[in-house]
Amino acid sequence: MANFALTVTGKRAVTEQRAGGQAGAILYAIDERGPISLHEIAEATAQSPKAAQINIRKLHKARMIQTAPDMGDE
Q: What is the CATH classification number for the domain harbouring 45?
């Protein structure tokens, strides 16, 4: 259960987050909790892990979330 280092990006994402729905709930969970596992996202948004994974891919493709740079090996 790896954590995702994702960040919410741009005005469009903020608008989507406020609008609610599954995508908005995922954006909110990522924004509030920082690095978060797929299962934590699914639990926080009342989605199955599979549905959460599909929605995360859609959000990433739409550039509403991005992977944060890995700060571990500096």
A: 1.10.10
